[in-house]
Design brief:
Blueprint: H1 2-15, H2 17-25, E1 40-44, E2 47-55, E3 62-67, H3 74-93, E4 98-102, E5 119-125
Antiparallel strand pairs: 1-2, 2-3, 3-5, 4-5
């Protein structure tokens, strides 16, 4: 009887874990609306990256992305940043067209990392 109660209790307590994870990293986060407090997670070429998108203009069309751990693979990190930027533009403005000021199409040696090791991309959504 005790074992059954313990197993049922463990199953019930673990069933809500997904809800808590979405608060810190899912796109449905109530904290920022785009990627939670820690950013959205993408897997590119088998490497997981966390990317955070931040609006930098008053109309929110201008944005920057910061992809952590970019030194592991700059090309894959740039793709993770591009994916999150496209998702941001689609959700906010209904389209995926972006004018890049510091885009993912640069050569890896032209993609400097910030002091924390994150790759920063910048652009503006131009749809709608």
């Amino acid at each position: 009887m005790k074992v059954t109660v313990l197993v049922v209790g463990a199953a019930l307590s673990l069933s809500g874990c997904g809800a808590f994870g979405s608060l810190s990293s899912g796109a449905s986060s109530p904290f920022s609306g785009m990627g939670g407090m820690r950013g959205s997670q993408s897997e590119i070429e088998g490497i997981r990256f966390r990317t955070r998108v931040s609006a930098v203009s008053e109309d929110k069309r201008g944005f920057t992305t910061m992809t952590r751990g970019a030194a592991r693979n700059l090309t894959a990190a740039a793709e993770a940043g591009r994916v999150e930027a496209v998702e941001y533009c689609i959700r906010r403005f209904g389209g995926s067209e972006i004018i890049w000021t510091a885009g993912p199409d640069r050569e890896p040696e032209q993609m400097p990392l910030d002091t924390s090791g994150a790759l920063v991309l910048a652009g503006a959504c131009v749809t709608r």
